[in-house]
């Protein structure tokens, strides 16, 4: 907000549009350099003046006309020092306004976000957890930035692995066990299939035959398939409920079965399909990529074929302006190939498709492979996190009402934040003990600070004072800690826009950490509830603004913000 104000002041002095100036303004790293700085170097050529001269002229003009600010120069910079007594109240009013935190930057644009997308009959892996958490946060952030968002869970409910599963089920399956523990039983069958197929390779043929039957609408096979899908979904939904994640659309890969024919036909009409060892491929030599497989030698479709049909559907039927795929970095080549084939088909909008990749997550040092059956089950991880949170609560505040629900909020919050605080492309070494700690750069640290603010506001009767029309005197917020906190609070919206711009929710996560640290500095500087009502009310107002932003930020990241911990 200070940047916007400064750009409004500078615009007439330079006869440049305010937006252009705003993009050039900097937030100095040290308070001695002011609150906002304008570098004049880029203007030297055009104005035929040395940068320090331009800076001096601008500073003089601002000191003359602008209100509540002091302009100084340092070399080619104009440094602006806002007067907290004038600006504190304005900043707080802006933050407390209902619309704060939402903008119309994306108005009129429709983003379709592919997220989570676990595979049926397999455990919900840590990679799917990352996709769910990052994708859900992005969806919320895009919404806050004014975009229309459609989230799609692109369930892996189709492919040769179902042939394997059905083949294994016919040999070693047990319906009762499957109904009781669908994922664990499917996993047992899947692992057994791989073990046996090493000794008896013709099992692979049997699996292929089952999948072919499935693709050719064999009723009995389809019923069995549907049963697998439904049972798995029940288990996934428990995880989604615990994480508080909802999808606008649940369209698995199988949804595109009747939509792939058109794509294959199009590719063939355009002369893009070529035979290679009996399979049909699109060559991508010019793009320096291996060929993209479209139809296998037995005529069945494959993952890229389904993704081509999916992209076309999202663009043409859903009307997407932007298509995001929140999927692990190990699928980079797959998406590059799919987008390249779209371009070859003449679909220019392939440029609006983005693979939002992320790195591997190791859980307590473990990497996972479904094939070998070494799996960390997400529901167990969530249980363990909630149990750990509960034991902390028992020690800290045993009389807390609703202990279990709060522990669940903190446990899942620890996991979500333990992921989102990292830049998405980095690999994450997740350790529960560390992530659940109440101090350090953790979710619980943010949640605990929020609860502390909430209790402070209750104790200081902030709402009552506000209702009674207490007036805010910004003078009481001019200490370095208070002023720096005020500036940080007002940067919430720009952290959201930065996050959206780079599809990087960690920007908001790190922003919230900074906000929380700044708040704790302010809190430790001196009592908030004092003898003097004016002082108390000013400090409480700042705390309320921090609380509001912290809560909104936590919710956007997909966490909960309990009022009491
Ligand atoms: N089910 C896939 C997997 O687990 C992820 C799907 C991602 N989305 C997509 N449109 N390909 O690897």
Automatic annotation (TrEMBL):
Subunit structure as annotated in this protein's UniProt entry: Monomer.
GO MF annotations in UniProt: arginine-tRNA ligase activity; ATP binding
EC number: 6.1.1.19
Annotated compartments: Cytoplasm
The DALR anticodon binding domain, residue ranges: 446-565
Pfam families: Arg_tRNA_synt_N (PF03485), DALR_1 (PF05746), tRNA-synt_1d (PF00750)
SMART domains referenced in this protein's UniProt entry, alphabetically: Arg_tRNA_synt_N (SM01016), DALR_1 (SM00836)
Keywords assigned: Aminoacyl-tRNA synthetase, ATP-binding, Cytoplasm, Ligase, Nucleotide-binding, Protein biosynthesis
Protein name according to UniProt: Arginine--tRNA ligase
Gene3D superfamilies linked to this entry: Arginyl tRNA synthetase N-terminal domain, HUPs, Isoleucyl-tRNA Synthetase, Domain 1
UniProt entry tagged with the keyword Lipoprotein: no
Recorded catalytic activity of this chain's protein: tRNA(Arg) + L-arginine + ATP = L-arginyl-tRNA(Arg) + AMP + diphosphate
HAMAP family given in the database record: Arg_tRNA_synth (MF_00123)
Annotated Gene Ontology cellular component terms: cytoplasm
Domain Arginyl tRNA synthetase N-terminal: 4-82
């Amino acid at each position: 907000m200070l940047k916007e104000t400064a750009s409004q002041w500078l615009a007439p002095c330079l006869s440049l549009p305010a937006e252009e100036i705003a993009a050039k303004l900097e937030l100095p790293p040290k308070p001695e350099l002011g609150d906002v700085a304008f570098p004049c170097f880029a203007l030297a050529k055009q104005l035929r003046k040395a940068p320090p001269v331009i800076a001096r002229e601008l500073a003089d003009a601002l000191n003359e006309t602008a209100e509540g600010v002091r302009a100084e120069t340092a070399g080619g910079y104009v440094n602006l020092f806002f007067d907290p007594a004038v600006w504190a109240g304005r900043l707080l009013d802006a933050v407390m306004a209902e619309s704060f935190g939402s903008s119309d930057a994306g108005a009129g644009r429709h983003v379709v976000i592919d997220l989570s997308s676990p595979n049926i009959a397999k455990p919900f892996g840590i990679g799917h957890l990352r996709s769910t958490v990052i994708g859900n946060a992005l969806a919320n952030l895009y919404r806050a930035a004014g975009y229309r968002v459609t989230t799609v869970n692109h369930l892996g409910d189709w492919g040769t692995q179902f042939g394997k599963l059905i083949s294994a089920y016919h040999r070693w399956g047990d319906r009762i066990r499957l109904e009781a523990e669908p994922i664990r039983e499917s996993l047992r069958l899947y692992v057994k299939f791989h073990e046996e197929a090493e000794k008896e390779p013709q099992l692979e043929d049997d699996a292929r035959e089952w999948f072919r039957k499935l693709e050719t609408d064999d009723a009995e096979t389809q019923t069995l398939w549907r049963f697998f899908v439904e049972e798995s979904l029940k288990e996934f939904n428990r995880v989604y409920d615990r994480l508080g994640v909802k999808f606008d659309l649940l369209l698995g890969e199988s949804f595109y079965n009747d939509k792939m024919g058109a794509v294959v036909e199009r590719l063939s009409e355009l002369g893009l399909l070529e035979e290679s060892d009996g399979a049909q491929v699109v060559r991508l030599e010019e793009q320096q990529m291996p060929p993209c497989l479209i139809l296998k030698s037995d005529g069945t479709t494959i993952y890229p074929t389904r993704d081509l049909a999916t992209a076309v559907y999202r663009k043409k039927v859903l009307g997407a302006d932007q298509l995001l795929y929140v999927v692990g970095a190990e699928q980079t080549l797959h998406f590059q190939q799919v987008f390249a084939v779209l371009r070859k088909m003449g679909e220019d909008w392939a440029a609006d498709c983005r693979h939002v990749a992320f790195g591997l997550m190791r859980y307590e040092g473990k990497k996972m492979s479904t094939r070998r059956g070494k799996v960390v089950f997400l529901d167990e991880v969530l249980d363990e996190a909630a149990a750990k949170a509960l034991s902390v609560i028992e020690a800290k505040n045993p009389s807390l009402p609703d202990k279990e629900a709060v522990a669940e909020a903190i446990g899942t919050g620890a996991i979500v934040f333990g992921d989102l605080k990292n830049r998405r492309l980095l690999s994450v070494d997740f350790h529960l003990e560390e992530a659940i700690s109440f101090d350090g750069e953790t979710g619980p640290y943010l949640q605990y600070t929020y609860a502390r603010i909430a209790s402070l506001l209750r104790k200081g009767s902030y709402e009552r004072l506000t209702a009674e029309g207490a007036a805010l005197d910004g003078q009481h917020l001019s200490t370095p800690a208070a002023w720096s906190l005020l500036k940080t609070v007002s940067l919430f919206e720009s952290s959201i826009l930065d996050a959206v711009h780079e599809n990087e929710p960690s920007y908001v996560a790190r922003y919230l950490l900074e906000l929380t640290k700044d708040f704790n500095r302010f809190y430790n500087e001196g009592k908030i509830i004092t003898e003097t009502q004016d002082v108390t009310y000013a400090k409480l107002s700042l705390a309320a603004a921090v609380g509001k932003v912290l809560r909104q930020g936590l919710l956007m990241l997909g966490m909960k913000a309990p009022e009491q911990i």
